[in-house]
């Protein structure tokens, strides 16, 4: 049996904004991956994974999916009885799509109709996103379906608005001084509570106004500049985005990162932003001079994901 690998994802731009119809840009991240496998379930990891698949299959039985996206749940349950588990090194609670990769792997193996990045139409992509939202909402309470879609398609995806998504090509990474990188906050974050905080904030008119007039404007401008590889407007808008998050997303910024976030803004050596819902996990960093930023962020675990 060939085991297709499903990679993690990184939401480069659009955290929280995509809930409010901003654009988003997300890409696969092959450093972390997962695949469905069979075993005799001898260790705790495999047993735990098998048990959680069993519980998930109970959820899938009662899920009413459109015909062209239906799953062979009986086959899935039979495989679970035979020792199926999800072998993954994707950290949970880190904002890199651990449940998205699992949902993508299950859909790929058990969907009645097969889709590939080459043969899928834009309308099917839109419908698939909705289906993935239903499949992933088991893990988060409410899901946009974006994470599993990225993991499934294994391509960069531009989120145009709440309804529409499209494949996009991003500029090639090249060996330059600049970098986009991940910082490990050293703690896990839970999506549910963070999203709850966001919805509470959205109840106040002032926050709604600044979200629409400032955050979404900076966010969409960053995506536009990044796709055009136009670095000056990118960093100008990144700084605005980072200041905005520092002022308005304080509960979502892990305490361990708070001073480093401010230091980047004060020195302009790098800018930080949330990677996913925040509260822990990874934070994204952008810099025109990675060696300088790296020295200033001494003590943090970092991983470069893109060079320019």
From TrEMBL:
Pathway: Isoprenoid biosynthesis; isopentenyl diphosphate biosynthesis via mevalonate pathway; isopentenyl diphosphate from (R)-mevalonate: step 1/3. One of its GO terms (cellular component) is cytosol. Coiled coil: none annotated. SUPFAM superfamilies: GHMP Kinase, C-terminal domain, Ribosomal protein S5 domain 2-like. Residues 84-153 form the GHMP kinase N-terminal domain. Gene3D superfamilies: 3.30.230.10, GHMP kinase, C-terminal domain. Keywords: ATP-binding, Cytoplasm, Kinase, Lipid biosynthesis, Lipid metabolism, Magnesium, Nucleotide-binding, Transferase. GO terms for biological process: isopentenyl diphosphate biosynthetic process, mevalonate pathway. Transmembrane segments: none annotated. InterPro entries: GHMP_kinase_C_dom (IPR013750), GHMP_kinase_C_sf (IPR036554), GHMP_kinase_N_dom (IPR006204), HddA/FKP (IPR001174), Mev_gal_kin (IPR006205), Ribosomal_Su5_D2-typ_SF (IPR020568), Ribsml_uS5_D2-typ_fold_subgr (IPR014721). GO terms for molecular function: ATP binding; mevalonate kinase activity. Residues 251-302 form the GHMP kinase C-terminal domain. This is Mevalonate kinase.
